[in-house]
Amino acid sequence: MSTISIDTLKSIKVNGKKFAAITAYDYSFAKLIDKAEIEVTLVGDSLGNIIQGQPTTIPVTLDEMAYHTTNVKRGIESSLVVSDMPFMSYATVPQALDNAAVLMQAGAQMVKLEGGEWLTETVFALTERGIPVCAHLGLTPQSVHKLSGFKVQGKDANAAEKIAAEAKILEQAGADLLVVECVPSSLGKTLASALDIPVIGIGAGSDTDGQVLVLQDMLGITDSAPKFSKNYMVNSSSIQDALDTYRAEVLSGAFPQPKHGF
Ligand code: KIV
Fold first, then answer.
1. CA–centroid distance, residue 46 to ligand 1 (Å)
2. What is the pLDDT of residues 171-191, one digit of tens each?
3. CB atoms < 10 A from the CB of 74, how many?
4. Which atom from ligand 1 is nearest to the alpha carbon of 57?
5. Which of 71, 173, 189, 196 has a CA that sits 20 to 30 A from residue 237's CA?
6. Does 37 qualify as catalytic in the annotation?
7. How far does CA 58 lie from the centroid of its chain?
């Protein structure tokens, strides 16, 4: 597979095709993901839950994100490596610039930030300095306490319009990618058609440009995987086979099914 860039993802979208993304936290799995030709590898702060056994992503530190990013990047040749900026590491523009630099120097090719309009100046400042940004809207797990739990977002018309407006603002500020998590499938579709940048969904229906899953959820390792995930080990003979099947199903549109959506 040739190296995946922002332009690769944009041209997949323009051509009406789909791409796959998945989380990774270490070198060994990153190698399998790259071999499966999965287009985007996300070093998610979900490592707080998955690797550390924490109830939320809030305890994850910048040093931990940098450590896992370095290890993942060593296993990747082609996939685009995106790293999460952890809780409060981008609360102000100067913090965001300093901390994004740490992740980029650890091997990230893009950083992901959770939040809406309040990030406009931050997204502009990062992208103007050559740091690509993936925005993250819908369910933003770092705000779990403010959201009163891990709940589907954008359910009523006003809330959906607010997310759509914020997505447009972040695109205009320079974001190159958007992750949208746990929103009605209709909103996932609206976002993908309203934005020029590729939209990656997780629990956002089948009409987004890409799909992302948490690796351990789709390998059936997580105790109670969310309803938007699928256990790909059930019909697979190996982890490599599961990853290959996941990508094939995303590209063909076989995943996700309506039962995986809201
Ligand atoms: O941290 C993470 O793994 C994520 C995905 C669930 C999108 O942000």
1. 6
2. 999 999 999 999 999 999 999
3. 12
4. 1
5. 71
6. no
7. 17
